[in-house]
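Exam prep: given the inputs below (a chain plus zinc ion), describe the expected output before reading on.
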Amino acid sequence: MNIVSHIECSRCGKQLPPGRLYNLCECGGPLLVRYRLSSNAMPRDAVTARAKTLWRYREVLPLGGDASPVTLGEGFTPLLHATRLGERMGLPNLYLKDEGTNPTGSFKARGQSVAITMARELGVRKVAIPSAGNAGGAMAAYAAAAGLEALVYMPEGTPVMNRLECSILGAGVKLIAGSIKDCGRALAERIRSEGWFDVSTLKEPYRIEGKKTMAYEVVEQLDRVPEVMIYPTGGGTGLIGMWKAFAEMEQLGWTSGRRPRMIAVQATGCAPMVRAFEGGAERADEWVDPATIASGLRVPSAVGDALILRAIRESGGTAVAVDDDTMLRAVREIAQTEGVVTSPEGGATLGALERLRRQGLIAPSESVVLFLTGSGYKYLEALEAVAENSQQRRSGLHR
Ligand SMILES: *Cc1c(COP(=O)(O)O)cnc(C)c1O
Ligand SMILES: [Zn+2]
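Solution:
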C-alpha cells in the first residue's frame, strides 16, 4: 500500500532511504518525503469509501505496510460554505475549513498523529517539543495514546489552556522566559544529553505529511481546486505541506495544472515572512521581540523559511500582516455570521481577506478558503475581551 520512494533534502537535494528516523539533513535543510506517484496510485473513488480521518490518504503517508497509526480521529474536518460572511464580503464562494474540530482543538493534531505514529513505529520511547501554543498539547495527546514519554518547553506567556492540557495529558512541562526560539535553544541541550526525539516543526519529515492532508480534503470536499487559500503562518508546516500536496495531486491525476494562490498571514507584531516576501528575500531574518495574542504565529524564525517563501511566490500568492485588534474583531465577525468560535489565528485569515478585497486582489467570482486552524475555546485570556466587547455592543443596541 505504501509508495514512499525516498526522503529528500529540500535544500541540498540529497536522497536518503525511507523508513528511518530523521531530523534535519546534515546541511541543516528540512527533509521531505517523496512518493512513487502515478494516476492509479490512489484512485479517488477508493478513497471516498474510507473512514473520515486523514489516514484515508494512506498511500501518500509515510507509514509502511499494514502497521496501524496512532489516531484520535484527526482530519476530514468540515469545509463550511460561509454564505452570510460571504455576502458581507461580496464573495459567494467563501469557505471555512474548521480545523478547531480536530482532537485537542487544532490542526496540530494532524502533524502529531503522523509524527508520533512514525516515531513509535521506528522505536522512539520519548518525544520532546518547544511550543508556544497548540503543538505541545497535540504532541502530548498522541504520545499518551502511543504510550510514549513527552516533554514540552513553553514560553511563559503561553495561553493557560495550552499549558494545562500538556500537564493533564501527562507531559513534563517547563516554562521558559522568552519566545519559542528560546525554548528550542534550552530544549536542544536536554535532547542531546537525555536522548529525547525532537519533533519540532520541520525538524523531522513526518509532521508536514499530516498537515498536507488539508489540501487533499479541500479538493475532495469542494470537488475542485479553489482559487485562493488564506493560511495563518507560523512555522509554515501547513502552507508548505499543502503546496507539496498540490504537486502530488497533479501526479495522482486528482487535479490538472491549476493550483491556488497561497496567502500567508502573520501578526504585525511578528511578521518575518511578510518582511522577507516584501523585501524579495529567499530567507527570512529573525524577528526581534515577537508579540501577538495569536500564540501560533509567535514564531520569530522558521526552519522552513525558504520553503514558505518559495510556495507563496510559485503560487502567485502574497504575505499579509494583521494586527491583534483586527484578529479579535474578525473572530467575533466569524462567530456572529457563521457560528464558529475560532482562535485569533483563524481571525487573522479574515483580516487578510478584507485587506485583499479592498486592494482588488481577489475577484468576486473566485473561491476562497480560510483556514480556521484552531478552536477559540482554548484562548480564554484573549477571547475575554471579545466577549466583553460584544456585550457592550448589545447593551448599546438595547438601551
Ligand atoms: C501552530 C498554529 C499555526 C501556525 O501553523 P504553522 O503550520 O506552523 O505555520 C496557526 N494557527 C494555530 C491555531 C496554530 O496552533
Ligand atoms: Zn541537505
